[in-house]
Amino acid sequence: QVQLVESGGGSVQAGGSLRLACVASENTYRRNYMAWFRQAPGKEREGVAAIVSSSGSTYYAASVRGRFTISQDNAKNTVYLQMNSLKFEDTAMYYCAAGLSSGGILGNGYNYWGQGTQVTVSS
After folding, report:
1. Do 72 and 51 contact (CB within 8 A), yes or no?
2. R_g of the chain, CA atoms, integer Å
3. CA 54, CA 41: separation in Å to the nearest integer?
4. With DSSP H G I counted as helix, E B as strand and the rest as coil, what are the percentages for the chain, rounded to 5?
5. What torsion do the CA atoms of 96, 78, 117, 97 make, to the nearest 10 degrees?
6. Predicted confidence band of residue 18 (pLDDT cuts 50, 70, 90)
7. How confident is the model at residue 40, as a pLDDT?
8. Which residues 6+ apart lie within 8 Å of 40 measured at CB?
9. Dihedral class, residue 81 (left if φ above 0, else alpha if ψ from -120 to 50, else beta)
10. Which residues pair with 100 in a beta bridge?
């Protein structure tokens, strides 16, 4: 029953914006850490942004800091990733993750993963 469902991906021109959403089951959302990752073909999966659900504290990869914002709506069991000033190199499949059990907050030690939503940025 633990599920994460991403939405909001699409195709945009460089400089544009998208907002991704991750809707979690109640049990998943109650877990303390939520994060967004991305992976482009031929590249390693990269932690993009994370949020401590209980406090709202946020963390960002250097590559997106100042352009992306992670936020949460506890009433909707939803975590968002607002992506502004998109670049071609932001093109990737974006995944929502929850339930950090080991490692760093932007590492891969999460227990639960969504199916992903594709973001394509054209130059």
Report:
1. yes
2. 13
3. 34
4. 10, 50, 40
5. 10
6. very high
7. 97
8. 91, 92, 93
9. beta
10. 110
What would the pLDDT profile of 33-88 be if each residue is shown by its tens digit?
899 999 999 999 999 999 998 889 999 999 999 999 999 998 888 999 999 999 99
> For residue 23, what are its two tokens?
């809707």
Say if CB 50 and CB 58 are below 8 A apart.
yes
Q: Torsion over CA of 104, 106, 109 and 112, rounded to 10 degrees?
A: 140
First to last CA, the chain: 40
E-assigned strands of 25-91?
A: 33-39, 46-52, 58-60, 68-73, 78-83
